[in-house]
Design brief:
74% of the residues lie in helices and 4% in strands. The protein is mainly alpha-helical. It has a three-stranded mixed beta sheet with strand order 4-3-5. A two-stranded antiparallel ribbon has the order 1-2. α3 packs across α9, α5 runs antiparallel to α7 and α9 runs antiparallel to α10. The protein is globular, with a radius of gyration of 23 Å. The N and C termini lie far apart (65 Å).
């Protein structure tokens, strides 16, 4: 981060604390039960997303552009939960509230990267649904493996650069007084407000992030489904329209679970009680990774058929093994 800590070729000294103290959830009765609940949520999240990734990897019928995006979503959910949950439980359940300065910025980087990538994964899946329903004859040409991989790679690069800029600007801040972060993780907004020097660039980043990472993707997805609904109403019967729209239910469920609490929290951040903000944002961080694999397994026909097919193959292989031994 030395690039951020020099201006016009001159080195500037900043006062960085040895550690930050994370003190979210203060004053909430019986909060330890919530952390125990998070332990179970994390276990189910890991199992669910691992199952989805394994099924997509093992079943060659799912090697389609759409399932490249679904695999990436499961990977981000697994990676993001593993970056957040063990550390969160260590901080609050085992009372290790102090976190070294560099570790805190690293923690922030991984949490924000995964939170942002969830948003762009949903954009990739909405584009896939748009082409599949509106231009079905051109789907194989427009949505190829190469296109989907390039789109997801672009999203990864964009998000990583955006979060690196935010983290880099934090290293240009001096902390002279309080080092207490009123959140459940190393929250960007809470950190820059503790600074005792000019933090206007960080304020700009905190205003741009919700627009670029949440609002623009949400508007794109909303317009995508408005266009799908409008087109189906014009060219299809009610039964055909419902059949086509049924393929979007899983994706729409993910969009609602992810975007509604995130947009409420980031839009009304200054107007809601700190504990309400922290609780809402923590649930936003844990529920989508938990529910995404459940929704895809229960509501996506291809995944359900694939799971059944893999289980049949496993049973057959066991039977053949027994007969061979006998």
């Amino acid at each position: 981060m030395n690039l951020f800590n020099s201006a016009l070729g001159k080195n500037i000294t900043f006062v960085h604390p040895a550690y930050f103290t994370i003190r979210g959830f203060s004053g909430i009765l019986d909060i330890k039960y919530y952390f125990v609940f998070l332990c179970f949520v994390y276990i189910i999240t890991v199992l669910g997303n691992t199952v989805v990734m394994t099924v997509i990897y093992l079943d060659h019928n799912l090697r389609t552009p759409k399932y490249i995006a679904v695999f990436n979503l499961a990977f981000v959910d697994l990676f993001g939960s593993s970056a957040l949950m063990p550390k969160l439980l260590d901080i609050f359940l085992f009372n290790h509230h102090n976190i070294p300065y560099n570790d805190c910025l690293t923690f922030l980087f991984f949490c924000y990267t995964c939170l942002c990538m969830q948003s762009f994964n949903l954009v990739a899946l909405s584009y896939d649904r748009l082409i599949a329903i509106i231009f079905p004859l051109h789907y194989q040409v427009k949505v190829t493996h190469r296109f989907m991989l390039s789109l997801i790679a672009f999203f990864w690069v964009f998000v990583i650069l955006a979060v690196l800029i935010a983290v880099g600007l934090l290293t240009r801040l001096s902390f002279c007084e309080s080092v207490v972060i009123n959140s459940y993780f190393c929250d960007h907004g809470q950190i820059y407000r503790l600074a005792c020097n000019d933090h206007f660039p960080n304020y700009i980043i905190s205003c741009l992030f919700p627009v670029l990472i949440f609002w623009l993707p949400f508007i794109f997805i909303l317009l995508t489904y408005i266009y799908i609904g409008y087109t189906l109403a014009k060219v299809a019967t009610v039964q055909e329209g419902l059949k086509a729209f049924k393929t979007c239910i899983a994706h729409l469920s993910l969009v609602a679970i992810y975007f509604i609490p995130v947009l409420i929290t980031f839009t009304l951040m200054e107007k809601i009680h700190p504990n309400a903000r922290i609780m809402n944002l923590s649930l936003t961080s844990i529920y989508p990774p938990l529910l995404n694999p459940i929704i895809y397994v229960l509501q996506t026909q291809e995944i359900k058929e694939s799971v059944k097919r893999l289980l049949r193959i496993k049973r057959k292989s066991k039977t053949i093994k027994k007969l061979t031994i006998a």
